[in-house]
């Protein structure tokens, strides 16, 4: 097998031409060793991405380097196109692409807030759209419109397609986004909606299925171009193991939980984050997190020692095996003047109803911020 491993360096996918590799599952050209053996025997050697595209009509996420992504964005800026920027409603800060407006030049941007189905039903769509527009403006984006979607709801996909048609004016459409925002799932839903058939992705039907993008033909000769996702290094998802990703990327509607807190009490969100109530009268603090995330209440006095003793065990994730690479928690203090949310980017938020002083702790590199309450 040693000779075969050595030969991998010279093997390329017959679908997209990328160099085959068997070690990095999220990287370009990944092929399981068992599939490599079979491909070498049959002469049909595909990377996993092209294999899924060809045989299962599934567009899989692909991650590329910053330089490659910037090259793609620059290409978009040189083209007259509509840019559809998919972001995760649950993690705006972790899913915004830094400098996007600068790279796409004067092209229109349609902002798509994905995963709306995980927000509590009490949250009005109009309020979420206004909030997203404010956040977009802060990030230097001036979207022509904002659409809320869930790739799992056909009506949402239909509305998105109508909005795309409204703003593209016969132009190509580039879909961009960071990893973990559900872009590939949304693209698959768009394909099914546009064709009425899930069994349509073939090499002949999609001749533009290349290493750096997938071109989905539209009736007028234009294309919806799906680009690879860029890794945003400040996402909470990068600090948990594969089995715990569901806790930072909920799939079902969040059920808020309210905790009656006195000043001097602390909430731990597993071992991923911490919330301290420093000053103020007793009040209900409502957490909006994945329904299976373990929330542990304790006294502020001794909370540091409690965390050091129980992280990886009672306070998990992270689990014991991940502690060596898990960043230290850093603290940020907030003075609450009105009903506000303290947002742990990519994990959830805690709503504070009344005046008080609080502190939030997150892994170093992850954002924590205050906003006007969404609910």
Descriptive keywords:
27% strand; 20 strands; 6-stranded mixed β-sheet; 11 helices; single chain; 5-stranded antiparallel β-sheet; 26% helix; Rossmann fold
Number of continuous helical runs: 11
Rg, nearest Å: 23 Å
Give the DSSP E fraction (strand runs of 2 or more residues). Answer: 25-35%
Oligomer: single chain
How is the CATH topology of the largest domain named? Rossmann fold
Q: Which structural class is indicated by helix and strand composition?
A: alpha/beta
Mean pLDDT: 84
Number of domains: 3
E-strand count: 20
Percent helix among the residues? Answer: 25-40%
Q: How would you describe this protein?
A:
This protein is α/β, with parallel strands linked by helices and 375 residues long. The chain folds into three domains: 2-56, no CATH class; 63-232, 3-Layer(aba) Sandwich (Rossmann fold); 240-372, no CATH class. The protein is built from eleven helices and 20 strands. The strands form five sheets. It has a six-stranded mixed beta sheet with strand order 4-3-2-5-7-6, with helices on both faces. It has a five-stranded antiparallel beta sheet with strand order 9-12-18-17-20, with no helix packed on it. It starts with a helix and ends with a strand.
Task: Please specify the SSE layout and strand pairing.
Layout: H1 2-7, H2 33-42, H3 48-56, E1 63-64, H4 66-77, E2 81-88, H5 92-95, H6 100-103, E3 109-114, H7 125-138, E4 145-148, H8 154-168, E5 172-176, H9 183-195, E6 214-217, E7 223-226, E8 229-230, H10 245-248, E9 257-261, E10 265-269, E11 273-279, E12 283-289, E13 295-299, H11 303-310, E14 311-312, E15 315-319, E16 329-336, E17 340-344, E18 348-352, E19 356-363, E20 368-372
Parallel strand pairs: 1-8, 2-3, 2-5, 3-4, 5-7, 14-15
Antiparallel strand pairs: 6-7, 9-12, 10-11, 10-13, 11-19, 12-18, 16-19, 17-18, 17-20
